């Protein structure tokens, strides 16, 4: 009776027994049944054996057919072996059948299938049988606390604990060391569980969630993203994962611009992402919370061609289609919102067809799991992706326990001797798990020093409502296997932020050209006026207008007009490196031009005012006039101030940024307008000093021009024209300076105001000062030089006559004022005399009046000379007075003339006091 043959014999008690089957009889089964065995089916009651034919147990204790075929052997392989004589080792498991991650729906059948296969193996724990005691933790740490208490304090003893969710595993693993229990998790990804000091006996076949982060960083770099945002559910697993991600992206030079978190309601967090222009968003939350997040994402329109979401890949494939009463979005809304998102997931199913320690390929495992699920839809089954990890977790535990049998036996210990106070057996199991290495259905199972599984990462993208594999990443080898089948809504991967295009604002070239033409013509006019003034410098009329100051005015106007060109030059014409030179040209040309032009006019009008406000004797003593020396002083002051400004705080280029503008053709692009300015560190201080100094000169110039408007002098014959020019320059400057400061951000308006003010000021100044001189010399022919003028003194005589005529007119006006004052005094005295005479007449007796009526008038005896006016007072003889005094006789009109008979000699002088 060898194992190589099949012997079928009737059992002595009416049963059926089989011993040994060859490979030819049952293909592929001899390798999992390597030792002799005996199968006995005892006919009792109403037992039925199902196969190609149905065998029923007869009342007499026999079967309907004593010959069973190979189909009965296949049925036997699915039934567990009888455990008679084997000692049981119990595993306490917590499977989340509901909650945030209902992974127990597929993981529990997978673990049970692994236990069946392990228990059927005679080369693994031949003297032991593993049994699973499990509860539904609902992925809730609070519920898990109660269940853990039941597992620990109720019989039988559990040799190992197997939790699922990270939150539950954290609780169990932290407490397990107090009972010397090994914890082996199949679905925990929290990075916090990698802390060996906090969780000294923890292992997991599910890799740490931090294994996603190297893959995410690799994708960020592949798609050239340097700015990301994150949103997380406030649980430890996601917080620790995000902390690890921050460290990794910082090393890679990537910025986390927005970090949002929420507990139960993600509405505010999603709105903040929208408000802060988040584009590349990493979401860390459980599946139930993911539906809430993407319902808000749909409401805020935080999806489409401008956005990319990175999610965890262990959700169910149709997680966004599951009806959830916690959200008010339809399936169509959710499908639209999640389209195109990218998931990173640990490779949980070996992509290669390799038979592992369980003698199953990954494809055979999926087929067997589907059979156990009884036709359930994998997409609607929680934990279907993690099922291979639960399967390999049971195999890892079984192999580790099998490895501890021999070392424990050498020390006289057995696995069944385990209790919660026995540290030696726990240490052996820990050592065996730590050195585990086998090929499972999820790939190579190896644990690192922290007890976490090491694996590759799968990258998927939701395309058309279903997930498509787009690549793998091996973080240990830093190798990215890319399939190139990623699909984007737009032309390619979106930008990590709104693309901002910097656009410099330049001056309108049409405006610059038009003003430049006027400035050029003004320069030509200045050259013409300067040439005219120099050529006719020996003409007396030109000499009497202080030609040196006029030359300074013409040169200053030309320099100011030349400043228009650098004012209009910007980055459109020169490189940024050359722009500071243009700034210096603006400052020097405009500063010195103003100093020459306005300073010379101010000097002339100031000298005129000074000359004609001095006393007469001082004016007679003044023989020579050199007012141009004062113009040099003002020029020196301005030159020195510009040199100090240049040395202490030189001008440089600064860039002003404006509000971003969105073009109509592309909403994902913003234009950042920029404008170049000439500025310095203390620009406002310098401008305050310059504007204050120049402003005082302008105001003072207006005052002096007003004070000297009626002054006439031969030595400066054009001071009235200078006053008019000062009025125009002062008004334009006082208006333009503040306006250009206000409009500094509007390059066209600022240039137009400044340049046109310069052009108009220069034109007005040149025309007012030089055109009348040109007209006079042309119309009167006064082109003779000073030598010729001495031979032909007609013009000089005419000039002297005109000067004398103006002198007489001025004296005439002064005398008329004196006469008017005297007439008012005479009128007042007449009134007084009339009142006194009336008073005498009332007191004089009527008789006396009659007696004196015939008396001769007293005036008949007076000396006629006493009636003559005092010396120096104008007489009534019109022939002896100038024509302007012909009306002096009006002092004594006929109708109001006082009779000389009624005036006493002593009263006559009162009239002329």
Q: What are the key terms here?
A:
disordered N terminus, single chain, rod-shaped, disordered C terminus, 25 helices, 5-stranded parallel beta sheet, Rhopdopsin 7-helix transmembrane proteins
Largest sheet: 8 strands, mixed
Here the CATH topology of the largest domain equals Rhopdopsin 7-helix transmembrane proteins
Helix content: 40-55%
Write the CATH architecture name of the largest domain.
Up-down Bundle
Q: Helical segment tally?
A: 25
Mean pLDDT: 78
The CATH superfamily of the largest domain turns out to be: Rhodopsin 7-helix transmembrane proteins
Rg, Å, rounded: 58 Å
Overall geometric form: rod-shaped
Number of strands: 23
CATH C-level class of the largest domain: Mainly Alpha
Q: What percentage of amino acids are in beta strands?
A: 5-15%
For the record, the count of structural domains works out to: 3
- Give the strand order of the largest sheet, numbering strands 1, 2, ... along the chain: 12-11-13-14-15-18-19-20
Q: What is the SS-derived class?
A: alpha/beta
Low-confidence sequence ranges: 1-37, 66-84, 615-625, 784-797, 847-913
Distance between the termini: 176 Å
Protein name: Gamma-aminobutyric acid type B receptor subunit 1
Keywords: Cell membrane, Coiled coil, Disulfide bond, G-protein coupled receptor, Glycoprotein, Membrane, Phosphoprotein, Postsynaptic cell membrane, Receptor, Signal, Synapse, Transducer, Transmembrane, Transmembrane helix
Biased composition (Polar residues): 783-799, 847-864, 904-913
Region (Disordered): 783-810, 840-913
């Amino acid at each position: 009776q060898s194992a190589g043959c099949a012997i079928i014999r009737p059992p002595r008690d009416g049963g059926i027994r089989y011993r040994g089957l060859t490979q030819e009889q049952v293909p592929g089964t001899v390798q999992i049944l390597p030792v002799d065995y005996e199968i006995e089916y005892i006919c009792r009651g109403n037992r039925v054996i199902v196969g190609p034919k149905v065998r029923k147990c007869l009342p007499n204790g026999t079967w309907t057919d004593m010959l069973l075929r190979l189909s009965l052997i296949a049925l036997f392989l699915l039934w567990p072996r009888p455990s008679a004589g084997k000692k049981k080792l119990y595993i306490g498991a917590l499977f989340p059948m509901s909650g945030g991650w209902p992974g127990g729906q597929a993981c529990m059948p997978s673990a049970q299938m692994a236990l069946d296969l392990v228990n059927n193996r005679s080369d693994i724990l031949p003297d032991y049988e593993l049994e699973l005691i499990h509860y539904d933790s609902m992925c809730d740490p609070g519920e898990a606390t109660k269940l853990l208490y039941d597992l620990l304090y109720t019989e039988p003893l559990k040799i190992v604990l197997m939790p699922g969710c990270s939150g539950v595993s954290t609780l169990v693993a932290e407490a397990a060391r107090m009972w010397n229990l090994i914890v082996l998790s199949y679905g925990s990804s929290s990075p916090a569980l990698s802390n060996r000091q906090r969780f000294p006996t923890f292992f997991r076949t599910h890799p740490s969630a931090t294994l996603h982060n190297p893959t995410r960083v690799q994708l960020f770099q592949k798609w050239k993203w340097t700015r990301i945002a994150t949103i997380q559910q406030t649980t430890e697993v996601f917080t620790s994962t995000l902390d690890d991600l921050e460290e990794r992206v910082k090393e890679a030079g990537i910025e986390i611009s927005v970090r949002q978190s929420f507990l139960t309601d993600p509405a505010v967090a999603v709105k903040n992402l929208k408000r802060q222009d988040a584009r590349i968003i990493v979401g860390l939350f459980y599946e139930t919370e993911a539906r809430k997040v993407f319902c808000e994402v749909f409401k805020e329109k935080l999806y489409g061609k401008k956005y990319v979401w990175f999610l965890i890949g262990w959700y169910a494939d149709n997680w966004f289609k599951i009806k959830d009463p916690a959200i008010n979005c339809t399936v169509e809304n959710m499908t639209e919102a999640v389209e195109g998102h990218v998931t990173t997931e640990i490779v949980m199913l070996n992509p290669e067809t390799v038979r592992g320690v369980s003698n199953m390929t990954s494809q055979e495992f999926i087929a067997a799991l589907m059979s156990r699920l009884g036709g359930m839809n994998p997409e609607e089954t929680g934990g279907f992706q993690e099922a291979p990890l639960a399967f390999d977790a049971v195999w890892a535990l079984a192999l580790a326990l099998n490895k501890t049998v021999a070392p424990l036996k050498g020390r006289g210990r057995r696995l069944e001797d385990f209790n919660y106070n026995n540290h030696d057996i726990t240490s052996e199991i820990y050592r065996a798990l730590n050195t585990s290495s086998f090929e499972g259905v999820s790939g190579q199972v190896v644990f690192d020093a922290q007890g976490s599984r090491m694996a590759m990462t799968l990258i998927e993208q939701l395309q058309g409502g279903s997930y498509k594999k787009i690549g793998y990443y091996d973080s240990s080898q830093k190798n990215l296997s890319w399939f190139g089948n990623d699909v984007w809504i737009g032309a390619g991967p979106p930008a990590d932020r709104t693309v901002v295009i910097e656009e410099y604002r330049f001056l309108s070239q049409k405006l610059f050209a038009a003003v430049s033409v006027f400035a050029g013509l003004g320069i030509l006019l200045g050259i013409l006026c300067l040439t005219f003034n120099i050529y006719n410098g020996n003409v007396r009329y030109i000499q009497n207008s202080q030609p040196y100051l006029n030359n300074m005015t013409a040169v200053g106007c030309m320099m100011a007009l030349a400043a228009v060109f650098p004012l209009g030059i910007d980055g459109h014409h020169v490189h940024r490196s050359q722009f500071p030179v243009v700034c210096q040209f603006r400052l020097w040309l405009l500063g010195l031009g103003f100093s020459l032009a306005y300073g010379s006019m101010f000097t002339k009008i100031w000298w005129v005012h000074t000359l004609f406000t001095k006393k007469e004797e001082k004016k007679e003593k003044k023989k020579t006039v050199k007012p141009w020396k004062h113009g040099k002083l003002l020029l020196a002051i301005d030159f020195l101030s510009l040199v100090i400004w240049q040395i202490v705080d030189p001008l440089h280029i600064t860039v002003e940024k404006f509000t971003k503008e969105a073009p109509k053709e592309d909403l994902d692009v913003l234009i950042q307008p920029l404008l170049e300015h000439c500025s310095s560190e203390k620009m406002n201080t310098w401008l305050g000093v310059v504007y204050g100094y120049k402003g005082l000169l302008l105001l003072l110039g207006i005052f002096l021009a007003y004070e000297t408007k009626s002054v006439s002098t031969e030595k400066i014959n054009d001071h009235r024209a200078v006053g008019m020019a000062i009025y125009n320059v002062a008004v334009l400057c006082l208006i333009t300076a503040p306006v250009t400061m206000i409009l500094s951000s509007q390059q066209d308006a600022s240039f137009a105001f400044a340049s046109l003010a310069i052009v108009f000021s220069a034109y007005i100044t040149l025309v007012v000062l030089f055109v009348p001189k040109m007209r006079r010399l042309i119309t009167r022919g006064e082109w003779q030089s000073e030598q010729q003028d001495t031979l032909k003194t007609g013009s000089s005589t005419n000039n002297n006559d005109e000067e004398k005529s103006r002198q007489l007119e001025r004296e005439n006006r002064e005398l008329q004022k004196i006469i008017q004052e005297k007439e008012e005094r005479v009128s007042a005295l007449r009134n007084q005399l009339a009142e006194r005479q009336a008073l005498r007449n009332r007191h004089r007796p009527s008789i006396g009046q009659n007696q004196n009526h015939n008396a001769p008038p007293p005036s008949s005896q007076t000396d006629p000379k006493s009636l003559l006016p005092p010396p120096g007072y104008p007489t009534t003889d019109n022939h002896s007075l100038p024509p302007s005094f012909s009306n002096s006789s009006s002092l004594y009109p006929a109708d109001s003339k006082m009779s000389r008979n009624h005036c006493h000699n002593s009263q006559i002088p009162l009239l002329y006091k």
